[in-house]
Every structure is written in C-alpha cells, then in structure tokens.
Amino acid sequence: MPASSSMNKNHEFARCLESSQISASAPFHWLALAFKDIANAPILSLVYGLVFTLIPATIMYFVYQFDTHLVILPAVVGFALIGPAFAAGLYDVAWELEKGHKPTLMHSLKSMFRNPAGEWGFAVLLMVIMIVWMRLAALIHALYPNVVNPSFEQLSAFLTLGSIVGGILLVTVFAISAFTPQIMMERRVDIMTAVISSMNAVKTNFAAMVVWAGIILCLVFVGFITGTAGFIVIMPLLSYASWHAYIAVIKTKKPRGYE
Q: What is the pTM of this model?
C-alpha cells in the first residue's frame, strides 16, 4: 500500500469535525422545529413514542412487581444497547422531512443498520460507562454512616463525593452523546471521530448545551411523573430536536437549513 494512502487513512481516523457557534436560546428553536416534525409525521412519531414509553414502563413494572431494584441494572443495560438504534429511526424521520421526502417506517428501520459497527460500538461505550458508575456507586456507598438516622454532617462526605463523581460522569455522557449518534448515522464515520466531534461541539457551545441539558432533564422528569405516559410525545420530541441541534451545530461542506 502506498505511503500516501496510509497517511490519508490515518488522517481520516479520529478527526474532529468543525462546529458552528450558536446562541444559548437555540435549543428552544430546535424544540419548535421538532413539534413541526411530529405534526408532519404523527403516526411514525406515535409508533416510536410507544416503543420508548414501554421500555421505562417495563422497568418500573418489574421493580414494583418483584419489590427489588436488582432488575434495574440488566434492564438499563438492555435499554443502553437498543435505545440508540431506535433513536436512529427517529433521526431518519427528521432527515427525510428535511430532504422533503415522505418518511416511512421501513426506511427508518433500515437506518438502524446504516452504520452498525459505530452504533453498536457507541451502545457498548454507554454500557461500559454505566457499569463503571455502578461500581463507583458501590464504593462510595461504603462512606454511608453506619448509624440510624444519620445527621447531615455525618452524610456530608458521602453526599459530596457521590455528587462530584455522578456529576462528572453525567457531563461526560452528555458530551459524548449529544451529537455522536447523528454524526455516525449520516456520515458513517468511525466512533472516535463522532465522539471527539461531539465533545468539541459541546465545549464550543457550552451555554447552549447547558440550556439543552436542562430542557432534557425537565422533560424526562415530566415523563416519569406522568407514569412514563409522557414519553410517547417527549421521546420523539427530544429525538427530532437532537437532529436539528446536529444540523445547527456540526458544520457541513454545503450549508443546510431546515425550517
């Protein structure tokens, strides 16, 4: 193999895609566009919304049915593996609408296998991070006071360390997942390129990403307080908005605007 060809391939691996700078209020515009997508593809949105709703509902059912939290870890691991695939289906719906096409269920299902190595690799990465968090949580729990009704002062070390470690992992997961699935689906790049590009985009647009993360947390909270029924609308809404976030932030050779 020629040396120049080898250098080009090395250059293509784990590169960082350029990102645009956006305003802190941009996430609200993404949500507005996402509502339009739901209106333009209501049946597909409902189908995927039901799938995403059944998953947390099933987890909660098993927790209450068996009166144990031991089922949460295997259930969440399963969700981490299949969740990104179903999200890709919703990204495809938004992408088809962007191109002026009529989205179909079959086309969106095929999108789940557009970049299988990258998508499964990303799912495994999330699963590893989650397992690390479970192990760290078990170690941190050793700091919990061995007394009945501990005071806040006695709990301070446990709460402080738990908050710091949990916060770091939460920020890390958000940074690597904000744009990675969208990048891999459309551009079929390697997982490292997608992850590095996502982290750089989050860093470049820190204010907007804080607002976006806050919106996600609020909507997920609403989903759970409605007994997971709210996820029927919330998950398609967040997925479509995430696609518009990707369009707005990750630069392309040819400018694109989907309103």
A: 0.81
